[in-house]
Predict the 3D structure of the following.
Amino acid sequence: MKKMIVLIGIIMSVATFASAGEIVRTPMLDYTPLPGMDYVFDVKTTKFDKVTLDCQSFITGIDFYNSNELQGHVPLDMFSCEDLVTFLDDSKTNNEPVCIGLDAEEHQLFMSHDSVEECK
């Protein structure tokens, strides 16, 4: 619960300072670890061909691809990465929707429990 509160605080503070960059919002469809990797995850969405959450490499972050071209990268420190994994795990366990927002220009990530209809 404490991690969830920290994650929400981070998201709220980032959202407060968000610039006028375009934010692409997409529902998360699924979230699974990559085979052979402990902390690298494949995140399925409706608007990106591939989303990879990497909390294992030296440089951690989340990458968004379309047509094998990087559309956005959001660097995450190890604590933010761990909080994000906890948020996604808890959401999947509790069958809660997850809405991912990306401001590629500002390299910012936004997460919420908005429904698929609200996540547009």
Observations:
- The first strand starts at residue 24 and ends at 33.
- Residues 7 and 83 are 6 Å apart (CA to CA).
